[in-house]
Specification:
The structure is a homodimer. Chain A is built from 16 helices and 17 strands. Chain A is α/β, with parallel strands linked by helices. Chain A folds into three domains: 10-187, Molybdenum Cofactor Biosythetic Enzyme, Chain A; 195-271, Alpha-Beta Plaits (2-Layer Sandwich), CATH 3.30.70; 275-423, CinA-like (Maf protein, Alpha-Beta Complex), CATH 3.90.950.20. In chain A, the strands form four sheets. A six-stranded mixed β-sheet of chain A has the order 2-1-3-8-7-6, with helices on both faces. In chain A, strands 14-13-15-16-17 form a five-stranded mixed β-sheet, with helices on both faces. In chain A, helix 3 packs across helix 4 (86-93), helix 5 packs antiparallel against helix 6 (124-132) and helix 11 (274-281) crosses helix 16. At the A-B interface, helix 1, helix 2, strand 2, helix 3 and helix 6 of A face helix 1, helix 2, strand 2, helix 3 and helix 6 of B. Strand 14 of chain A pairs antiparallel with strand 14 of chain B, so a sheet runs across the interface.
């Protein structure tokens, strides 16, 4: 990354929760908030994660304030249990007393009554008492209507602190209201509008890209005005470039160079993912899947796109050899001769899927995800793919790295890319 | 969380990488390292995430040092590209010069030669130049053998800084060697051995648990010596309790109270997950799945367990009505009469799965994941489940909250719990 910012509006994110700190749940709020802030043109400097201990939360608030951020967004610690102490800690950090917001207490009680209404045997008063602390807010703070049972809180100042609930669904639903407040708008008033472009490649090593970027640095005027981040994930390279408007020419030249050097690997210039591209290419077609080692991951990924019922018929998960024969008409003799993980069996699985589902497009995956089942000939990680899209057919055998879960995930991604190529009519 | 620690050895984690900070990839290293440190009895105070900007990395190192941690573990920023600056930043923070470790440079070159060996057309010298910076290490630092191409680095002191690579596979593989070093052992020498117990519940609201914990606080002697964290995730409640050895009696009493108050919801006292319990219960059985809205998520989750081929036959993903008829013999008249999302159709899917796969156990899921497809009668989130395990049969219709992806994930979890109950012979 090359830094070219005139620092404008800076923010920090404080994620609280012992369950997040200790890794028992993945934090989804930090990344989501980061994305929102970046889109707004707010510079994100730090995300910090701590447990439910007030002194650690306070230390992080002080750290971010000392780093000069304009806005601190916290997530979590607004629940009814005794370990939820974010509001009290923020109040102390901002030098404000906590007071009971009685109107809010009534609204929370109404929400609880509705939630509890159909559960006989629940002691409503006890539940209400547990939730009373959620109506305690710092004096003078702005309060955001609860999405679950916890209200959000905004304390204006330098920095302004925005306190949001931990459950991602509540936090995300509350965000627009938070953003609309005078206090938050003022805190981020210095934001810059950047352009951001994303390019995706598949099948290129990171050092190959590093070499091209070094070349670009030597040959493209104004290259240093581009802030480039590269990221290797699931075998895909993502290249994100941010620049202020006057960097547009340099970006155009960079893109031309990437196209020239990595024509085969570069598959997306507009940030679209392979999932989105495949979904668009499937319009007017009918697809079915036939999976062994991935056992549904490919089908689930296709079905992740809303509206997929316009082209997705279904799939057969044939983990056992008997299931391959019964559901996909794979000839047991073929399995005996070549093994279940072989190109002829993958091709036969595709044919069976086309036939049984009445599809015109199909993908088959058969592989050894491990940890057991490998042989010297076909070690763990060996995966066979077969794709048919109309008259285009692709068959491949790859050896994928990693553990069971890496191999299954990577195989799913490879299948998506083979499918994209077949649908686009590239049958190399 | 109630804090009762005699603070022993404290650590902080610095996760670097603009792609992580900006949410384009989920950080997996923070949680994994947190888990390792906690198991060692090292108190984890903070995880901080920043981009690849040296001044932000330096600020986080200073923050953690000021908070008095004994050990800082960093992840990321060791790659060949120009934005990877962690080692240089740590060297400056520790007041050490960077020097080229020539022996290490040779070893990295040997690794690259092996990696590149089978790729014609790659300019080896250019790649080697790109990777040379990975052999620059702080004077006097201990160097850990690369797993990918980047060596790890340990700089002893107060705090000791351990620099690890970003790819989770490399970081995890390097951890044992890092832990074995004198410098790290010395940094964590004050660690305490805690006991940690995990209880899991399904189908209980968080405020119900809060009420029980308040009761426990009043009635159980020594309750305050227990450090309890509760976490609601995918409809499951996880309760983790850490305590020093003399808290064992209080924990026993707490567990007895949880059993008494929440007998139906409590399904795990030893931390085992529903996935592990189902895998154990499936020994000697053969299972098949029949999925519509989850489209393979349940099958993929069953197949996530190594060795699942001993009981998992496969599954049918029948997204279209035609596929339900063709693969599972669901009578189209049944669909016309009750709708595809109905208990009779789910039961028919189970029967079809048992028959086609020759299974003795089967699960069917049919639901409306949205965003489209809901009706006043069957709104988005309506999901029908049918389970058969030998002579036990369970059928259920639930209305699940959230967006498309929440509903599909939650439906998969509900199916796992219904399967567990059926296998355990609870047919309520």
């Amino acid at each position: 990354m090359r830094s070219v910012h005139r620092v404008s509006a800076r923010a920090g994110i404080v994620v609280t929760g012992t369950e997040v700190l200790t890794g028992r749940i993945q934090d989804r709020n930090g990344p989501w908030l980061a994305d929102q802030l970046l889109e707004l043109g707010v510079e994100l400097a730090h995300i910090t994660i701590c447990g439910d201990r007030p002194q650690d939360i306070a230390a992080q608030l002080r750290f971010l304030a000392a780093e000069g951020v304009d806005l601190i967004v916290t997530s979590g610690g607004l629940g009814p249990t005794a370990d939820d102490l974010t509001v009290a800690t923020v109040a102390e950090f901002c030098g404000r007393e906590l007071v009971l917001d009685e109107a809010m207490e009534e609204r929370i009680a109404a929400i609880l009554r509705r939630l509890m209404g159909d559960r006989p045997g629940v002691d409503f008063d006890a539940v209400r008492a547990a939730n009373r602390k959620q109506a305690l807010v710092p004096v003078g703070a702005e309060v955001l209507e609860p999405v679950g049972t916890a209200p959000g809180v905004i304390v204006g100042g330098s920095p302004t602190v925005l306190v949001l609930p931990g459950p991602p669904r509540e936090l995300q639903a509350m965000w627009p209201a938070a953003l609309a407040t005078e206090a938050v708008q003022q805190a981020i008033s210095g934001r810059t509008r950047y352009r951001q472009e994303t390019v995706r490649m598949f099948g290129l090593a990171e050092s190959g890209l590093a070499e091209t970027l070094r070349e670009a640095q030597g040959s493209i005027p104004g290259f240093d005005a581009l802030e480039i981040t590269t990221c290797l994930r699931r075998g895909e390279l993502e290249i994100v470039t941010r620049y202020e408007p006057d960097g547009a020419d340099a970006y155009r030249e960079l893109l031309a160079l990437l196209r020239e050097r990595h024509a085969t690997a570069l598959y997306s210039e507009d940030g679209s993912t392979v999932d989105e591209q495949v979904a668009a290419l499937l319009a007017g077609r009918w697809i079915a899947t036939a999976e062994s080692c991935t056992a549904g991951l490919l089908a689930a990924r296709l079905a992740d796109i809303p509206g997929c019922s316009d082209y997705f018929l279904g799939g057969a998960i044939t983990y056992s050899n008997e299931a391959k024969a019964e559901l996909l008409n794979v000839d047991p003799v073929l399995i005996a001769e070549y093994g279940a993980v072989s190109e002829p069996v993958a091709e036969s699985m595709v044919t069976g899927a086309l036939h049984h589902f009445g599809a015109d497009t199909a993908v088959a995956i058969s592989g050894i995800a491990g940890p057991g089942g490998g042989t010297p000939d076909k070690p763990v990680g060996t995966v066979c793919f077969a794709v048919r899209a109309g008259s285009v057919a692709i068959t491949r055998t790859l050896r994928l790295p990693g553990n069971r879960s890496d191999i299954r995930e990577r195989a799913t991604t490879v299948a998506m890319h083979l499918l994209r190529r077949a649908l686009a009519g590239v049958d190399d």
